[in-house]
Amino acid sequence: MKKRPIVIGVLGLALAISATFSSGSRSETAARRIGVAAFSDWRADDPGVWRRIAPEDLPRPLASEPKASRSEVVARPEGAAPKTLEGFSVEAFATGLTGPRVIRVAPNGDIFVTESSAGRVRVFRLADGALKPEKSEIFASDLERPYGVAFYPPGPDPQYVYVGTVSKIVRFPYRKGDLKGTGPAEVVADLPSSETGHWTRDIAFSADGKTLFVAVGSKTNVADGHVRPSRAEVADLEAKNGVGAGWGPELDRANVLAFNPNGGDKRVFARGIRNCSGLQLRPNTDDLWCVVNERDMLGDDLPPDYATRVKPDAFYGWPWYYIGANPDPRHAGARPDLADKVTTPDVLLQPHSAPLGIAFYEGAQFPPEFKGDAFVALHGSWNRAKRTGYKVVRLKFKEGQPTGEYQDFLTGFVVDDTRVWGRPVDVAVASDGSLLVSEDGNGTIWRVFHSKK
């Protein structure tokens, strides 16, 4: 199969992707959809629209019939482009990528991107003042579906690039400015792995560099088909791994794990998180945040996906409960002792939106009111009668705390009820303060910037 070329802004190639789009941009002041009104589909998406969902807004389980409805990913139609807020513009930053997933910006401004389906990590370099890549190089290849990337130690002069793969954490020697790995992959830690189940492995270091956090999703939807542990087995599991610990094929899964930087001292940092696909530290704090894909087949509007600060030793309910002490009917009555031990997440997102990436905005390119807020990439639904997700939203923070509201920021990837041309995966803030968005439907990274006058 012939590979599509990577299009980068050098030697005239930038002409192919340099068009700036602001089609359908909307004002900051737009409608607010609160409570039940926040449960909608792609037709209600529009840059500027705010939503807020609270635990008391949730419908009963199976209020609608669960339905698998996968979208068909098509080529980007001629003239189609993402839509964003009034005053912002969008342009293609790089095209022709193979399954681009996580984006991380190195301290020197180089942009690392995992092309998971191609098994490689790519690096883009921008010349001073340039808006498009000057260089594109393969930093590492022949990896097992690489996903998360982190630089160690945190700070201006890292010595290693860590990469999360399906079954291992590996690292490569690194000196500032390296465009290619200068040594073989060193295995740091083994992870729970299987040929089925959630495979993304995002990673992040604590601010002091002493702890490596690793997100490991569940093997199944809700521990389907697993023989429940006996009371004695539960006691042993929870003595070792904490309240609500997984068992059998789910051991060490649906968790955020923690290691020291060399891979030793493995422990469970938080539990009952079905699939934490995006993991980030909020800047200038020790707050670890993740965005979570919640369980399937309880209906169109249940349960919400979420973004949350991951509290140490917290239990978030999977598989027994969701969004607080709401029992999953498939495990009804199995663990009543856990009902008062479930931590409720901070920001509830429309169910089945599939959040995959999160980035906090600390740049100066956007207007001041964006500073401290977070952006989340929603990959889009597959088990909902009508499409939802397929966009980037902004989580509002006030004095460092989430308000629970989120705003449509980048939309326009849906063609109709059955087809989409873009599936956002991750977000990152470039060194110039613009926002980079990866989407794996057509293998593109988009750049969003404020059109200052």
Protein architecture, described:
- The protein is an all-beta fold.
- It has a single domain, classed as Neuraminidase (6 Propeller).
- The strands form eight sheets. Strands 2, 3, 5, 25, 26, 27 and 28 form a seven-stranded mixed beta sheet that branches. Strands 1-6-32-31-30 form a five-stranded antiparallel beta sheet, with no helix packed on it. It has a four-stranded antiparallel beta sheet with strand order 7-8-9-10, with no helix packed on it.
- β9 and β10 form a beta hairpin.
* The named CATH superfamily: TolB, C-terminal domain
Total individual domains: 1
- Could you tell me the mean pLDDT? 92
What is the name of the CATH architecture? Answer: 6 Propeller
Using brief descriptors, characterize the structure shown.
single chain, 453 residues, mainly beta, 7-stranded mixed beta sheet, disordered N terminus
Short structural summary:
The chain is an all-beta fold.
Describe the secondary-structure layout.
Layout: E1 20-21, E2 32-34, E3 50-52, E4 72-73, E5 83-84, E6 88-94, E7 100-105, E8 111-115, E9 120-126, E10 133-140, E11 149-152, E12 160-164, E13 168-173, E14 186-190, E15 203-205, E16 212-216, H1 231-241, E17 255-259, E18 267-271, E19 276-281, E20 288-292, E21 305-309, E22 321-322, E23 326-327, E24 347-349, E25 355-360, E26 374-378, E27 391-398, E28 401-411, E29 419-420, E30 424-429, E31 435-439, E32 444-450
Parallel strand pairs: 2-3, 4-29
Antiparallel strand pairs: 1-6, 3-28, 5-28, 6-32, 7-8, 8-9, 9-10, 11-12, 12-13, 13-14, 15-16, 16-17, 17-18, 19-20, 20-21, 21-24, 22-23, 25-26, 26-27, 27-28, 30-31, 31-32
